[in-house]
Amino acid sequence: MAVTVVVIFLLCFFSTGRGNNQAHHEESYSTTPTRGQPWPMPQKYSVTTKTYDIDSNNFQFTASGQTCDILTKAFARYKTIIFGSQDTKLRFYPNRFNRVEEGVTGLNVKVQKPCEEYPYLGMDESYELMVPDSSGQATLSSVSVWGALRGLETFSQLITGTPGSGYKINGTTISDSPRFQHRGLLFDTSRHFLGTDVLKKNLDAMAQSKFNVFHWHIVDDQSFPYVSQAFPQMSQMGAYDQLHLYSPNDVKEIIDYARDRGIRVIPEFDTPGHSQSWGKGITDLLTKCYSKGTPTGTFGPIDPTVDSTFQFLNEFFTEIKNVFPDKYVHLGGDEVSFSCWQSNPNITEFMKQQKFGTNYAKLEEYYMQKLIDIMNGLDKGYLIWQEVIDNGGKVKADTVVEVWKGGWQAEMGKVTGLGYQSVLSTCWYLNYISYGSNWNNYYLCEPYNFNGTEAQKKLVIGGEACMWGEYVDDTNVISRTWPRASVVAERLWSAQSVNDAKAAAPRLEEHRCRMVRRGFQAESINGPGYCTPEY
Ligand SMILES: *[C@@H]1O[C@H](CO)[C@@H](O)[C@H](O)[C@H]1NC(C)=O
Ligand SMILES: *[C@@H]1O[C@H](CO)[C@@H](O)[C@H](O)[C@H]1NC(C)=O
Ligand SMILES: *[C@@H]1O[C@H](CO)[C@@H](O)[C@H](O)[C@H]1NC(C)=O
């Protein structure tokens, strides 16, 4: 023990002595949390200083418009979120009094259109909230059930509870809708497996920040946990082991859980690179690497020169189309290493036949084009990483290009200049961590901040926060992701003018405390402070 202390002391001594970029104490924003303010900030939000009691024993959610299982389940869920339950002991402050003359007695939810089966790109998420309405209740109106879900979340955030004096809500009028249609969060379940309980917990956290896309980077080089019904050998051979798997039933549970919260599930099956784990179950899929004319026993990207590759992909993606109801799947296409392709004599021969010269980007493009043709045949939409466009790929008009590399302003200009929709993730890699309060970098990254016409800006449909899985598993993925992902959520939901990090900090602090009260291990991000039990 004593030795450890001395070592730490010396490290501190030397590091403070060597430069001025180390400090024991970091500057941080004011951390006094707000009370009863929403995150992300609604488009129009006005609040009065008149407060109303809420009687937790008699409060009712009622549907006076269209309804369905999504809404009924949401009512039950938000009752527990707001008032807690004796089982979870999350909150549960008994009312001090039962008077209703100054109270809001219920929330009347009016959904105009019949519920849709699954959330989708471009769904209507707008809603209006009035507290109280003329009848002494609160009213939430929306076009679609998805808007009602967003409004219920906002409503839950306006209510504060204080031990001893019960629940209160201020007079409030809100008119709200998202700035961007695609507000995603990427989790990587290949570098480390994440249990379905953690994935569900994360979907709850996403709903609290109004994210609407779970980008499920489900497989990669390291492991293939997805259990394919057509090719069960892929997870039998390619998963870490037979305990770290997503069965068809697990996948369905995640999709259903997400749907109930208005969240789309877009799986990513990344090829032709990042596919080492695929090759274990499907022999002859990957390129054999050579050294001085002999095989090394190692493998490279998928082999684009043989028909069997595309027969397999057709069958595999037919399954994926049927398992995942969303119109879109992510096809990857990033970071393809050419060295193995360069070493293989058959590939060299193929390059000659196709007149590709030594331009292996053309081979990659050849592969992606054939995969895209398969997807077009299946009538499934797709997202791709930016490399596919950088290599000159011709994709369908409704393709979504995900920009992730440095120099994103130029890339967004290029991608939208070609007429493609784009989502930005470059500035929201949450897996890069550093000491101190650095969330304002995520907050200030503005997707429209590139040179382009109005028409080009319209093609920016949103962005994604990414949590790559090298250093996170079930033990820390929630705390490392939250509440930093919420910062991205506000950028993508709220008006462009809501961009003052200092002004946002107290509201973010409340949002984080609210997450903690709801049972998320959301880490501290504003420096010293504490959460009272009141959020
Ligand atoms: C609600 O009203 C009280 C005064 O009754 C005020 O102090 C508080 O700031 C208001 N809350 C919000 C969220 O504006
Ligand atoms: C090259 O192609 C031939 C004929 O299809 C095949 O027998 C051989 O295994 C291939 N070699 C490599 C290195 O893939
Ligand atoms: C936009 O173009 C102007 C003029 O060429 C340039 O000064 C500026 O840096 C560009 N902005 C971005 C974000 O690329």
Automatic annotation (TrEMBL):
One of its GO terms (cellular component) is membrane. This is Beta-hexosaminidase. It catalyses: Hydrolysis of terminal non-reducing N-acetyl-D-hexosamine residues in N-acetyl-beta-D-hexosaminides. Residues 20-41 are annotated as: Disordered. One of its GO terms (biological process) is ganglioside catabolic process. The active site is at 335 (proton donor). GO terms for molecular function: beta-N-acetylhexosaminidase activity. Residues 180-495 form the Glycoside hydrolase family 20 catalytic domain.
